[in-house]
Design goal:
607 residues; alpha+beta; Alkaline Phosphatase, subunit A; Jelly Rolls; 3 domains; ten-stranded mixed sheet; 13 helices
Length: 607
Amino acid sequence: MDRKQVLDSQPLQSTFDFMANCKSQSILIALALCFTSATVALSRPPNIVVVLTDDQGWGDLSIHGNKNLSTPAADSLARDGALFERFYVQPVCSPTRAEFLTGRYHPRGGVFSTSTGGERLDLDEQTIAEVFRAAGYATGAFGKWHNGTQYPYHPRGRGFDEFYGFCSGHWGDYFDPPLEHNGRPVRGEGFISDDLTDHAITFIEAQRAAPFFCYLALNTPHSPMQVPDRFFEKFKHAELPLRHEASKSEDLEMTRAALAMCENNDWNLARVLAKLDDAKLADDTIVVFFCDNGPNSWRWNGGLKGRKGSTDEGGVRSPLLVRWPGHFRPGLRIRTPAAAIDLLPTLAGLAGIDLRTPKPLDGIDLSGLLRGANSAIAPRLIFSHWNGKASARGERFLLDDQGHLFDLSLDVGQKRAVDGQHPEVAKAMAAELESWKNTVLAELEKSPRPFTVGYREFPLTVLPARDGIPHGAIKRSARAPNCSYFTNWTQRDDRITWDISIATAARYRATIFYTCPAADIGATVELRLGDQSVSAKIEAPHDPPLVGAEHDRVPREGESLVKDFRPLILGDFELPSGRGELTLHALEVPGKMVADVRGVTLELLEK
């Protein structure tokens, strides 16, 4: 039975079974290799596969000692390649992704939020995809983007030739979800993580003859907590041997669902590794696995303090597993602290790319450590920041956001401050942290940036409810904006606005996406920008049910359920270039409501 058959028949097989079926990672071959610090001559540049998971903490891997679940694919990367013992990301999604993309701290790139435009990466930042595409690589991104929706913030504007997934921070239903393919709406098939992986595998197959950079950004175990039955059944009534230290804070149902989602992630990682084996690409491919922040609930995390959203260890310490057969010593453990900002220079270094960046990087090239060289890394601090809080960590010590010093070599749980024992260390780290705040954080401008519209390279622009502002009685369908829609639109004075900037003066087709029960049809809605407007009457009833709750393993909090929205073309109108306020409002309201609205699209008609 080959590994593909093993995967198909035993998606939750043990680590031993997985190891026994890994064709490309023979222990005998690994032992026969001689690893030196010399640069290895490459017959072709290595392919790059980066797998990033969402809200999966450091402790959500069996390689890190979690006996509650099994992650054989991730464990195999650590066995056959390198494991970084201390790797740091940021406390939440979009800042980490921005740092991976640029090699620079997220405030430098204008990322200050996870929604309503604050997640966008400044357009003058160079991305890792642009670096590799310029070096001749085919580039593809599959999954959750979360660094801008409208072109040129969109992945297709940031160096990726191919994109399949969604650009928002989270999605409302993970089964047959609405997604996009290169800017055009499509319907996903099956469970979202499996579907995203299918498309990444198709990309790998299509690009196998030339170097490729494949970024697979799985959006689980981020809520809503949904996962196929075959993964959930194992955990549905499971007694978990490892619990969060403050067990009264742990929601066991949430933990069970999260662990099932993590095992699904690992199964999909195994499918990618199997494709590399089948295509005989494993030895020519660097595979990277990491997570975007700490766990999204209180669950076992190796005793680390904090969770998602925290600048303590539990909020920012992530797995980092890197495999390149024949180039990295199997079982390599790297103790030097590293961070997401290091991935761009390190991967470029491994690929032999002469990295020239328009702006100085914060990250450093750690390729020498991966190759087994005894190259010294200059001592440095790694900084974490979110929601006004910042911390700093070095080889041994952590200075938390309250200014307290902890010795991580003895106290990963940050239980005993050692300010008094090491006052000079605390003073020096506090000075560096303050300097970082005064320089890096000073670059962060939270002034409103308009949403971009009207690029000929990307004629269809989506303006979702997430990016709009409700006025009057209109409100969002849930507290979290990312997958929300506007509802409670009842009055003529109510309106929705988007701050936009149009790149091309041209003719545009305006469409809204609405739902409205039969009893309330008949409202006339207008979309206006300056003295240009289009309008149409809502004549067709469309009142589909809310969906998503039937798939939830744990009741969702603060996140909207979803429904299908019907397009209504308002008409075509001429729009000038420049910045303005796009306004959607009602001219007449014959019923109790106007409509619920998921968003607006503006399509440039003149090529």
